[in-house]
Amino acid sequence: MSGQTTTLAKAITMGLRAAMERDSKVVLMGEDIGKLGGVFRVTDGLQKDFGEDRVIDTPLSESGILGTAIGMALRGYRPVCEIQFDGFVFPAFDQIVCQLAKMHARSKGHSRLPIVVRIPFGGGIGAVEHHSESPEAYFAHTAGLRVVACSNPVDAYWMIQQAVASDDPVIFFEPKRRYWEKAELDTSAGPPAEALDQARVVREGADITVAAYGPMVKVCMDAASAAAEDGTSIEVLDLRSLSPLDMDTVVASVRRTHRLVVVHEAPVTLGMGAEIAAQVTESCFHHLEAPVLRVGGFDTPYPPSRIEEEYLPDLDRVLDAVDRSLAY
Amino acid sequence: MSGQTTTLAKAITMGLRAAMERDSKVVLMGEDIGKLGGVFRVTDGLQKDFGEDRVIDTPLSESGILGTAIGMALRGYRPVCEIQFDGFVFPAFDQIVCQLAKMHARSKGHSRLPIVVRIPFGGGIGAVEHHSESPEAYFAHTAGLRVVACSNPVDAYWMIQQAVASDDPVIFFEPKRRYWEKAELDTSAGPPAEALDQARVVREGADITVAAYGPMVKVCMDAASAAAEDGTSIEVLDLRSLSPLDMDTVVASVRRTHRLVVVHEAPVTLGMGAEIAAQVTESCFHHLEAPVLRVGGFDTPYPPSRIEEEYLPDLDRVLDAVDRSLAY
Amino acid sequence: MALAPEEPELVQLLTPEGELVEHPDYRVDFSDEELRGLYRDLALVRRIDAEATALQRQGELGIWASLLGQEAAQIGSGRAMGPNDHVFPTYREHGVAWCRGVDPLNLLGLFRGVDMGGWDPEEHHFHLYTIVIGAQTLHAVGYAMGLQRDGMVGDGGPELTGAAVAYFGDGATSQGDVNEAFIWASVFQAPVVFFCQNNQWAISEPLERQTRIPLYQRASGFGFPGVRVDGNDVLATYAVTQAALARAREGSGPTFIEAYTYRMGAHTTSDDPTRYRIAAEVEAWKLKDPIERLRSFLIRTGKADQDWFEALEEESNQLAKHIRAGCLDMPDPSPMTMFDHVYVDPHKPLANQREQFAAYLASFESTSEEHS
Amino acid sequence: MALAPEEPELVQLLTPEGELVEHPDYRVDFSDEELRGLYRDLALVRRIDAEATALQRQGELGIWASLLGQEAAQIGSGRAMGPNDHVFPTYREHGVAWCRGVDPLNLLGLFRGVDMGGWDPEEHHFHLYTIVIGAQTLHAVGYAMGLQRDGMVGDGGPELTGAAVAYFGDGATSQGDVNEAFIWASVFQAPVVFFCQNNQWAISEPLERQTRIPLYQRASGFGFPGVRVDGNDVLATYAVTQAALARAREGSGPTFIEAYTYRMGAHTTSDDPTRYRIAAEVEAWKLKDPIERLRSFLIRTGKADQDWFEALEEESNQLAKHIRAGCLDMPDPSPMTMFDHVYVDPHKPLANQREQFAAYLASFESTSEEHS
Ligand SMILES: Cc1ncc(C[n+]2csc(CCOP(=O)(O)OP(=O)(O)O)c2C)c(N)n1
Ligand SMILES: Cc1ncc(C[n+]2csc(CCOP(=O)(O)OP(=O)(O)O)c2C)c(N)n1
Ligand SMILES: [Mg+2]
Ligand SMILES: [Mg+2]
Q1: What integer is the mean pLDDT of D88-105?
Q2: Domain ranges, ordered by start, for chain C
Q3: What is the ipTM of this complex?
Q4: How many domains does chain A have?
Q5: At which of A145, A166, A189 does a domain end?
Q6: Residue B327 above 70 pLDDT?
Q7: Model-level pTM?
Q8: What is D32-329's CATH superfamily?
Q9: In chain A, which residues touch B (CB < 8 A)?
């Protein structure tokens, strides 16, 4: 199978399918993932093809999903858990923070938990409360987890497979409002040059670096195109991995451009931007022409969807930050 | 009652007692807080004096504690919940993040949740796993919560009362390894000049600012004393409030000293230091002589207690950071 | 699959055919007017639901969670409540909201995306909708513990005593929170009624994904009574809820009610049930429609005549108009409202964010009015 | 307070007085040697516990969670297991660990603060201790679901089939996770045994804070059998566990066992039970001591003689020496080990932190050897 136009959602389906074909220990668990194929249809057709033992419609309990996934992993399985929406990961938080993240260290390396927790995240789809959250910082603050976010179909296809192949637990964020965006996916072309824990320069630029991940990469690319027309050359980074952060790539870029804006949907306070700002300032203190600026959600609950456009960083807010940085 | 030498634990007991005497709607909830008086004896004697209806030994379920506290608050009560140890707050995380933090906004101000969640936090007491965590950043990243940490008996006495009086939910961190430290507490002297959401300069200095909270304030004060002997003048801030952060006080100090080190026990990545570093760099970009440096726990699970001394920031590590900052 | 509602354990007072039946433990004693009142409730909430569904199709609502098929469970339980009983609903209790006097328009805000719940929970003794499955059951128990402390439990009758009523679905029974709520309620003998609408489905998952045995039996493991009532029978639901409320208010502790019913529509307007359930199942349940059976009964017994039904139809049309017009009129909130009520007390950093954002929005005003 | 263990629902095969009694459903068929073996287990784990308690008092352990009084519940259940049965313990299952061949020394590491669990969970089919109350019950269910998928459920007998065994306390039954575990196990008919040691206390809270009704009845609400066994009777505990394991392994699903016992000591060495419970209660339970009753039986029936008991005493002393010497010898870990096994795959930022910290420590080495 080579080049075909594929949505991000479908690319994950294909990635899961490939992972399941490769390794019979890969099992999927989640609410409504079987017959329905998931509320976003990401697991569509997989139960039909791999059976109910490998694609498990679970009881409605997220702690149960994570807790039993851990048990299955201890028995040698590689569970891929789907959390139906970002806001519903919290009942599982204890199992993730106290068990999933720590058991490998607790056991001095005896026990491995190669579990992937798939979380459709972020806003912009006009949903009700708890369906538009960006909880990635909670996980990135938790040692023992890997946290990644894909931003496009090609990465989605490969990153989900790399996540399943990882012997560490991976929290896998899927940009739900990009599920339906398409790209050419040539599965025979092999995985991208970057490893799962590496960032990528998705657009080169000279004047300023803008770093984003997941759904905001597109916003930043659009901002870069718009800025180019005004003569500003923005370098755009897709961070891809949030824990570990690939600071080598970020720092190398900032050493070139001397300016950095970090963009995410999550609230600014203690969001990923905080960590990146702190590290970049330390690594590039004498290179920075302006402080690292952050564009993110406000420190409020995610608002009703009729005003989510104002809550979410958009092209204008990114460019506003770019201008502020350049004005230093 | 005026001046008496009081431990931090006892000061909280006294503060809770005062709050309960003042307002009959104040109720305490938690595991083992009644007859036993809590595993740290912070609620010692309160059930005896206020009865089982106001000091409630609860079933062993933290989500239950928070969830029912929310219900009681909706009925007009002011519950003060005790989480037995930091590491056991996670089963309640969903109720805290999705309900406690958001219900006031959800209801457009109709419903208020004046709930205090007391959490003994931090390490250094030689305990087993889950008994030495510093989870404050998870809460400070969550809009709708107030997060505070006391560091000494006098503050403890007043801050717990201010927390109970607050109409917003407050996550109240108690530095468990300081429970037995004593100070003169003159309850007739009235509360400190700072409001609950304000930081305090606890030692003035000229060369560099060191900001900390909870158990690390003492470590930083000791570091400042040691540094003074070597001729370095450290200004020490007790942040007291972690959400909101009192950046006015921090920024004013950094504008004087031009250097900042933030110290906490929590893992460095996405710890409070990240946010402070990001904000200070933005506010004081042209004032900083060195990047904000962070001293914190490593990005590992909290280690076995025999090596926790090495994990926890100590005087040497604080001074090392001070030296590195001054060397810029 | 779905257990036959004819089984002995099921409390039923009005058969699908509209015949009254006796039950050893439960009875109702309604005047004709009250019976017509119940019918009116059922018909009007179905109309509200239909109108909201239509509004969603027309793009006026982002999503809608239909109560179609569950009207009797909601009206029967909602009408059984007294003034001090306090409801903790899920996102589907539009019928209960109706009984508590919430203007249906206020329900739409959440689904339209203009707010998170547009009514005052205290005014109506009807808490905001809770979307995180099961979380509200603990709130109900805590509220009930507050009632205990307020001296609102005992033999003062519904005017002086009160109970909390937690609504949840069959799927919700798998959440830790719901089971913890059972434990707390039992241990503290809290005045709470657990009202589970078993509509046979949790989105695409059938009941068997949540339990091996009839749900009402869950309560026995926690030490309080569970009862299965025909949730499509408004009379039985009323009687069973009334008894459970009386028991709770007088201090005898919680009851679990399994209202055995069926989700006739999709989970929400975003769902496609043809992917996971067969039409025959839906058809079978149509025969047990909660409204039809009461209609048959009223007509056959002459308790309501054609005029009355026509007048109701007219009222229903007016209500639909009110909803439609009100919905279309519902203004989008100002973006600045997202900063409101995050905290009760002043919060400086958020105030700063608010100010900066206001200034940022203002910077566009010269060129555009879109953010005004 | 504590229900009288004489009540009919309690499965008992050996009375506190050391008399064998018949039970309609459960029986054991032990040789004299096997009976002595059980006694040896009971005596030795009590000795391990006593030694660890002493080591804590002497400052060699930071804390210790004593199993005193619960030996029979643990040995009875632990000895009933087959080679493929996999245990998920709390922090108090030292007796079960013994049965699974874990060197008691390895248990001490956690309590001394040198590690988080010093054994290989797979080697012993004995998972690490879990401190977060209840979390391990879900792990057990997941493991059991793995066994199902591995074809390890059916009629192959204990050599070819297996089950998971989740241990937890009375207090733990209030956690959401534990109740979710019940649901999952029931829905998937997972081969798991829920072994609850009801030792009457959760730190300072008596059983009544967690339930109004006998705990074993909890299972009925989830659709699987619950049984209360005299947890101070090693024979009954063995028989009941063996039956539950057989049931699980052959595919008939979970069983809840409530081992009715008593925590004779403090919750942990940090606890002071005199603050919350009366001495008379402890005295009453002393009469039901799990070891004494088997000793009476062995002596009265002549199945063990004085020499045998003396030899055991000598073995016990040797074991105590092993523990004491081993504990004192247990080296503190190198601080650098805290960076080990956080991740399986390389993790650059952490590797950097490690390196920097090593350099930092090395900077002291010239002046001090303390971090070497
Ligand atoms: C904690 C949580 N997990 C998942 C969801 C997504 N979700 C919304 S409704 C639903 C099914 C609920 O089923 P049930 O409890 O039977 O109620 P019903 O919708 O049938 O009325 C799910 C899984 C959620 N809202 N909350
Ligand atoms: C989630 C969680 N909350 C609180 C604690 C603190 N804690 C440790 S043991 C214990 C009591 C446990 O009682 P039980 O389940 O009966 O077990 P036992 O100690 O009696 O064996 C508590 C509250 C914990 N370890 N985990
Ligand atoms: Mg349902
Ligand atoms: Mg116990």
Answers
A1: 98
A2: 32-329, 337-371
A3: 0.98
A4: 2
A5: A189
A6: yes
A7: 0.98
A8: Thiamin diphosphate (ThDP)-binding fold, Pyr/PP domains (3.40.50.970)
A9: 87, 90-91, 93-94, 97-98, 101-102, 105-106, 129-130, 137-138, 140-141, 143-144, 243, 266-267, 269-275, 277-278, 281-282, 285, 290-294, 298-301, 328
